[in-house]
Design goal:
Length: about 90
Amino acid sequence: MIQRDLMITNRLGLHARATARLVQLLSGYRCNATLVAKGREVNAKSIMGVMLLAAGPGTPVVLRVDGEDEVPAADAVAALFERRFDEDS
């Protein structure tokens, strides 16, 4: 299992578009993925689960991935967070 500490830095937080981008990215991986924020733990491959976090800008998030392709999945999600969900372009 890999765990990464991430921070939501995009302007609108994990709103519908950012959540859809995250879930779509993770759907290409076979590993299990979980996001933890504000005392809640959700399936990171579930749009409804991620939306329930209601995680706004500045919210710390823990990503946990477990499975055969966990390293590339964790790297891809970390890169998506670093790129601010590609919303600045």
